[in-house]
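Before relying on records like the one below, remember that each one covers exactly one chain. Contacts with other chains, cofactors or solvent are not represented anywhere in the record.
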Amino acid sequence: MAISWHRPSDEQILRFLERQDSLGLTYPHIGATAPDASLPQGYVVDHTRVPLGRGEATYLRADAA
């Protein structure tokens, strides 16, 4: 069976976002990752960094992404 993919219409996207907006979050610690917040016990902060490259061309590609 082939699955047909298509971009949703603007109306479909809006309805989806409206439905999501009425749902609660799936975690209790809202705001815990804000820069000035302290994390609850058991949270691990991942400070992994990966270089993308150098120069203006790299910056422009990353900005476009």
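Helices lie at 10-21, 55-64.
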